[in-house]
Amino acid sequence: MRLSPIAILAALSQLVLADVKVTVPAAGASVPAGSITVTWTDSGVAPALSALTSYTIQLVIGGNDDSTQTPLITLANAASFSAGSSVTGTVPAGVAGSTTNGYFLKFTSVASEGGTVINYSSRFTMTGMTGTTPAAALTAVQALGGSNAGPPTVNSVNNGNAAGGAGAAAGGADFTVPYQLQTGLTKYAPMQPVPGTKITANNFTPLHPTSAYTIATTWMPKPSIATTLTASQTFSVSSMENTAAAQSNPTGDMAKFLNRWKD
Length: 263
What we know:
- This protein is mainly beta.
- The protein has a single domain (13-230), classed as Immunoglobulins (Immunoglobulin-like).
- The chain is 11% helix and 28% strand.
- The chain contains 3 helices and 12 strands, in the order αβββββββββαβββα.
- The strands form 4 sheets. Strands 5-4-7-8-10 form a 5-stranded antiparallel β-sheet.
- The longest helix has 12 residues, at 5-16.
- The protein is extended.
- It comes from Recurvomyces mirabilis.
- Residues 1-18 form the signal peptide.
- One of its GO terms (biological process) is fungal-type cell wall organization.
- Keywords: Signal.
């Protein structure tokens, strides 16, 4: 059977379409706190690695669902793919605990055609950690039963539509992309997390990198962002009646003092 030139081109194109696959740290690896090196290669899945311009890498702990994940530090912020396929950062020991297979990397890449693709590394263990793992993250990791698999890839390149049409409505993944890496008229901002019941952190670590800004000295151009949507709060509260009996009225001097106001 003889293939047409179009069929051959289509077959070859599948070989060069690839986003990011993190190779180091490896699945199930034990990585000491301190210096950490991240290395990646072609994943073999679209979009093409050559079509990605910059990336941000975050160290995350938690489950595969957004609501159980806690970003800990940013290892690379808006770095260029042209600089190579490896980056080295530092993980402070106090950001969380040594939870087995609780850690993974969130690799957010910006596409030249617009939009982003989020690849996740396999899970690994950070050793020598002295902090406390958030309760929700710890429970979610334990529920995975020791699995090394990270969350699934989130492809939002060109609104997730290869034909350039309208994409799907905003989901949880849209709010996890760092603000400065988003493109288009609408941007998505995460909801501020609900404070815990006690302070467990020993060191202050921002959840997200700071945003660049320019002080205006002349008239600025028209805004390129039409709308910013903030994620809805996900926590809930409940209340109940206080069934404790009422205290008796004051007596003695306190009763005399209160009686002065009975006009």
